[in-house]
Design brief:
Rossmann fold, 9 strands
Length: 290
């Protein structure tokens, strides 16, 4: 079924996600702070570009957004000319940004006051997952709204799962980032150990990837870590933003995150070396250089 949709934010994730929607036959209006990027998207996929989130969202059945952080979410959704200003009652706002559970609950309340449904729906899978339509989407919100939105979100996902009420999607994404950061550090330490012990690290990867140590990071980042290649992937700057969200939520809930607090400091050291845009697997640099 074709829907009238809006997509707000055409970054490395949003650009291909919106493209999947257009290729699926949906009628799409896009908005991006960079007018040139919005124009390029329209030239590639069709549809129309709007001058504001409110204009893009007007008459849309579902509005999806994927921006940078909590303040960006507020600016695009609730400020003057934000998405909620243009949306009609009964429509759905879906936020794919990795943000705090607090801002998700704020948006849910603001949307409800206007008769609009809200779903917080952060994604995992990175740029490659967005480009290949293989993202994992973790959703918080109303079950009826989820049922209406899920077939559309599935256009660029391999899994779309309702985790609970508003904020549950963001909390689940925090768990994801906590686990990912720990796995990366373990892989970095293991590979550094292998090299210093005189082992062939590629042969080590080939062997242990067939056993209990196997992970997405090992399969997709192990060889590039050995080759000292980091100019791609999920940036350290983005991971630090996500870990700050995790640590703030942990302070609020009383959860202990001692390893994540340490890894956040490690990533700060990477940033200090000019590696803010390196892939998160660059943690191994700290071990090699010390």
């Amino acid at each position: 079924m074709s829907h009238r949709l809006a997509f707000l934010g055409l970054g490395v994730m949003g650009y291909p996600m919106a493209g999947h929607l257009a290729r699926a036959g949906h009628r799409l209006t896009v908005y991006n702070r960079s007018v040139e990027k919005a124009a390029r998207w329209v030239g590639q996929f069709g549809g129309t570009a709007a001058d504001s989130p409110a204009e893009a969202a007007r008459d849309a059945d579902i509005v999806m957004m994927c921006v940078g952080n909590d303040n960006d979410v507020r600016a695009v959704a609730v400020h003057e000319n934000g998405a909620l200003a243009g949306m009609r009652a009964g429509s759905i706002l879906v936020d794919h940004t990795t943000a705090s559970a607090e801002v998700a609950r704020e948006l849910s309340q603001a949307a409800t006051a206007k008769g609009i449904e809200f779903l917080d729906a952060p994604v995992s899978g990175g740029q490659a997952g967005a480009e290949n339509g293989k993202l994992t989407v973790m959703v918080g919100g109303n079950a009826d709204a989820f049922a209406r939105a899920e077939p559309v979100l599935a256009t660029y996902a391999r899994a779309v799962t309702l985790m609970g009420a508003a904020g549950a999607g963001q909390l689940t994404k925090m768990v994801n980032q906590i686990c990912v950061a720990g796995v990366i550090q373990g892989l970095a330490e293991g590979l550094n150990f292998a090299q210093r012990a005189g082992l062939d690290p590629l042969r080590v990867l080939d062997v242990i990837s067939k056993g209990a140590a196997q992970s997405w990071q090992m399969e997709n980042r192990g060889k590039t870590m050995v080759a000292d290649q980091f100019d791609f992937g999920f940036a350290v700057d983005w991971m630090r933003k996500d870990l700050a969200i995790c640590l703030a939520e942990a302070r609020s809930s009383g959860a202990a995150l001692p390893v994540i607090a340490l890894l956040d400091q490690f990533y700060a050291r990477i940033q200090a070396r000019g590696g803010g845009r390196w892939d998160t697997s660059s943690l191994i640099r700290l071990l090699r250089d010390d």
